[in-house]
Amino acid sequence: MRNDPAATAAAVLARVGGPANVTSAAHCLTRLRLTLADPAAGDEEALRAVPGVLGVVTAGAAWQVVLGPGAVDAVTAAVEALLPHPPPGGSTGPGDRPPGTAARPDGQPLTGAEAGERLKERLRRRNATPAKTALRRVANVFVPLIPALIGCGILAGLNGLLVNAGLLPGLTVALTAIASAFMALIAVFVGYGTAKEFGGTPVLGGAVAAVVVHPGVAKVTAFGVHLAPGQGGVLGALAAALLATRVEKWCRGRVPGALDVLLTPTLTVLVPGLVTLYGLMYAAGAVATAIGTAANWLLATTGPVAGLVLGGLFLPLVMLGLHQALIPLHATLIDQQGYTVLLPLLAMAGAGQVGAALAVYVRLRHDVPLRSTIRSALPAGLLGVGEPLIYGVSLPLGRPFLTACAGGAAGGAFVGFFAMLGTKVGATAIGPSGWALFPLLAGDRGPGPAAAVYGGGLLTGYAVGFAATYLFGFARRPGGSPPA
């Protein structure tokens, strides 16, 4: 049964210290992201017990409430309506908390839940470091861009099919312009989001980042070579906007009030703009080229090993909310090569999670609440949204989380093996995975072979995740028999 978004929002706010304690609210595809003025006023355990909440990840003032795809939009809107002032933030794209996923109504945890919660708490504390906090802030810049990346990526894939088939040439010209316009100007959006996230004036961050994609940079010579529009891509835009934010803050504290309205914007655009032209674009371009070269080299020479490592370690990143920090790498590869070869490898982690959940469903036949959780979370898992299965099934049980990682590693090794043989699989956009990634697949041998390899990886992840969990995911009873 679907929970009422307004009731869920009110319950969430009551357990994070009330509406007045929330300074910002936003959401990604599955999580409501709150910033609290006083984190000590929140009650994390009570928040976990709210119907509709699938999990909670906290790091200081940043609290993430896992609600699942779809419902997170409605709950976030209800939360914003209850806040005293509309908080700054963005949305990109709720779900029922099935009974018994973390605590029973009497407060007693389910079997295995305490171990899972202790593990999560240890990981959460290790995760609250300055470096990882910085990664989260960078991720917050890119998360609002995901809907546009998905929409434009699907249109680009559809357009490619029409072009290859020689159909509707008049329409393909229009689709090309629509699908590529956002990527052509993504630097401006990155600059705007960067300044907003790091405390600057968003439009000034966008103005400086626009230098990266302006056609006029082709007339500028840096380090003895002419620059190219777009050189450095999103990395250059991110660096330019960060510098603009620092310059703006410096000016605000030193420029007299009467001149602030004139000098601060001028210096904020001028100084970082010059540094961007004569340094950042060149440096960011070199870094972006190195990223593309490294990704291609890894898959060409160590494909199965690279896939095993990436597919096996991605679930812990999802659990900790750090997977969004990879978006700049994906965006850089898409800008360079037209697709990111990393996303299909990482998507195998979701396949391992699905396989593990199916094994739990089969083995724990008498655990009605847990089987209900799996039934409700499995469709999202098949579409690549892993949080409901992570927080509702595998992590509380402990071992199935590790065996799910094993399934993801196997699927990643499968895809990496074919990449080493010369069939690379890439995604033209960031966001969906699982079966939802098929419309976005591309590769050096065309969409057909790419889809075949990716599908084989998913099946491998399902099979290994299921087998590993069925055989090793449960502690045996003293008599030697596994649990029923």
How is the secondary structure organized here?
Blueprint: H1 5-14, E1 22-27, E2 31-36, H2 44-48, E3 55-59, E4 62-66, H3 71-82, H4 113-127, H5 130-142, H6 146-165, H7 169-184, H8 186-197, H9 202-213, E5 221-222, E6 225-226, H10 233-252, H11 257-320, H12 327-337, H13 342-363, H14 368-382, H15 387-397, H16 399-421, E7 426-427, E8 441-442, H17 447-472
Antiparallel strand pairs: 1-2, 2-4, 3-4, 5-6, 7-8
Helix pairs in contact: 1-3, 5-8, 6-7, 8-9, 8-10, 9-10, 9-11, 10-11, 11-12, 11-13, 11-16, 13-14, 13-15, 13-16, 13-17, 14-15, 15-16, 16-17
Q: What descriptors fit this protein?
A:
single chain, 484 residues, alpha+beta, Gyrase A, domain 2, four-stranded antiparallel β-sheet, two-stranded antiparallel sheet, 8 strands
Describe this structure in words.
This protein is α+β, with helices and mostly antiparallel strands. The chain folds into three domains: 1-91, Glucose permease domain IIB (Gyrase A, domain 2, 2-Layer Sandwich), CATH 3.30.1360.60; 144-292, no CATH class; 338-472, no CATH class. It contains 17 helices and eight strands. It has helices at residues 5-14, 44-48, 71-82, 113-127, 130-142, 146-165, 169-184, 186-197, 202-213, 233-252, 257-320, 327-337, 342-363, 368-382, 387-397, 399-421, 447-472, and strands at 22-27, 31-36, 55-59, 62-66, 221-222, 225-226, 426-427, 441-442. The strands form three sheets. Strands 1-2-4-3 form a four-stranded antiparallel beta sheet. Strand 3 and strand 4 form a beta hairpin. The longest helix has 64 residues, at 257-320. The chain is globular and about 70 Å long. The two termini are 28 Å apart.
